[in-house]
Specification:
This protein is an alpha/beta fold. It has 13 helices and 16 strands. The relative contact order is 0.20.
Length: 461
């Protein structure tokens, strides 16, 4: 594939760097104003969350039931992996080759059957005040990590989120709730597989260097002014955040992390030249550059899908033919996730980085039939199902090559080792070295622990 460097047009396409520096410094002032005491945990650790919005059908991926009646088991058969006793869907052959490098959790459940309530329940670890709407009243896990890691590395983006252009943190319940918007993720919009894609907000081109030099001279004069007239330290604080914002914006490592052209064509091909693959590769680059929590929203795998497919993982019969959608969607998913796992291990990042792959719930074990809105014909689908969901984890120095928990013979409910989303996050926080009893004040001033319940999953640690 040809090499596409970051061009001047791409770097300048969203406006002035200097105006952004002012905005970022405002955010940083807000962060410091509400900074909490307590360490930043093990700052050399990180998490990549692959978020499958719409929910992963567990019976068609990681928790297949080949002995169940046809109306439950569906079209696909399980295949063996390189770990005896672990099977995955036949459409995930690359997963089968790296099962020794991941573990499957099959017994997680919660009580929210709509996307908005389920998003917030899973991503915040708390029951939302209302099941309606995607705006968090409590902070998402990524925002908690952002808050705790705020003081670690002036040129690092502690929480990033790669997602569809035009969306915001509230679109996927990644908001900061009572922590305030300054702790929301740095949004990475668009499709990184597009050769015209860039993150110009972090770009500095030669034409702007004189302006930056002038800005630094101004800050230097402010330093002298402050020493003479600012006994309160107010201007000193403003200057500190202006400098910190500029350090981030001109950081060579921050800019380079977003430049996928620095990767070999062979590695980019291994991940897949599509949104799933290049988002996953970008997440690896970000955590390698110091990001603590990289969220990857995998919705549409790219290209024009068949008429009986759907944009994300929401495989209702009215949306798609669930099995045809899987035939189209699963191959790039299989490729991207396994490339990420292999890459983390190959680069020696498997202890530093913990990978989590999940959606907000599973889908109904029993297949339903409705007329598809896009096809006009009756087709099979699976509806929302918070009663059971499967989650893949990899790395983090955890025990790999195993299955934790199980569901009943139809995949409807946890059977052995019932778990909640909070047990997953307790495991994540343990990896990051963050104490789950750490508290932050809500809007009323009441201190709330970052996780109300949940224990690290003992089988993994």
């Amino acid at each position: 594939m040809p090499h596409y460097p970051l061009s001047r047009r791409r770097l300048l396409s969203t406006g002035s760097l200097l105006s952004l520096a002012g905005g970022v410094s405002q955010v940083m002032r807000l962060r410091a104003a509400s900074a909490a005491e307590g360490g930043a945990g093990r700052s050399d650790t990180a998490v990549i969350l692959v978020w499958l919005t719409g929910g992963l059908s567990h019976l068609d991926t990681y928790d297949m039931k080949p002995e169940a009646p046809r109306e439950y088991r569906g079209d696909f058969a399980p295949i063996r992996t390189n770990v005896p006793g672990i099977q995955v869907c036949e459409l995930l052959p690359r997963h089968a080759g790296v099962a020794d490098k991941f573990s499957l959790i099959r017994s997680v459940s919660h009580g929210y059957g709509d996307h908005d309530g389920a998003h917030r329940r899973v991503l915040t670890g708390r029951n939302p005040r209302s099941p309606i709407g995607f705006v968090n009243d409590a902070p998402s896990v990524g925002c908690i990590v952002n808050k705790v890691r705020d003081r670690v590395g002036s040129a690092r983006l502690a929480f990033t989120s790669g997602q569809r252009a035009g969306t915001d943190a509230d679109s996927y319940s990644q908001g900061a709730g009572y922590l305030g918007r300054s702790y929301e993720p740095f949004l990475v919009g668009g499709d990184p597989s597009d050769v015209k894609w860039s993150i110009p907000n972090l770009a500095v081109v030669p034409e702007l260097q004189p302006r930056l030099a002038g800005r630094r001279r101004l800050l230097s004069r402010l330093d002298r002014f402050q020493r003479d007239v600012d006994d309160s330290g107010t201007l000193a604080a403003a200057d500190h955040f202006e400098r910190k914002a500029m350090n981030l914006l001109v950081s060579e490592s921050a800019r380079k992390a977003f430049d996928l052209t620095e990767e070999s064509a062979a590695l980019r091909d291994r991940y897949g030249r599509n949104p799933y693959g290049q988002q996953a590769l970008l997440a690896r680059r970000l955590v390698e550059a110091g990001t603590s929590f990289a969220n990857v929203v995998m919705e549409h795998p790219g290209g024009a899908g068949p008429r009986d497919t759907v944009y994300n993982w929401d495989c209702h019969a009215v949306n798609c033919h669930v099995f045809n959608d899987a035939r189209w969607r699963f191959p790039p998913f299989d490729q991207a996730v396994t490339a990420l796992i292999e890459d983390l291990y190959t680069r020696g990042l498997d202890r530093k980085v913990m990978l989590v792959v999940t959606g907000e719930f599973g889908h109904t074990p029993k297949i339903s039939y409705q007329t598809g809105t896009g096809t006009g014909v009756t087709q099979p689908g699976r509806d929302h199902w918070p009663g059971a969901m499967s989650i893949l984890v990899s790395g983090g120095g955890l025990r790999m090559g195993q299955v934790v928990g199980s569901t009943d013979r139809l995949g409807e409910r946890p059977d052995q080792r019932p778990l909640s989303p909070n047990d997953l996050w307790a495991t994540v926080y343990r990896h990051l070295g963050i104490d789950t009893e750490l508290t932050f004040s809500d809007h009323t001033g009441r201190p709330l622990a970052i996780l109300p319940d949940g224990e690290p999953i003992r089988e993994l640690i």
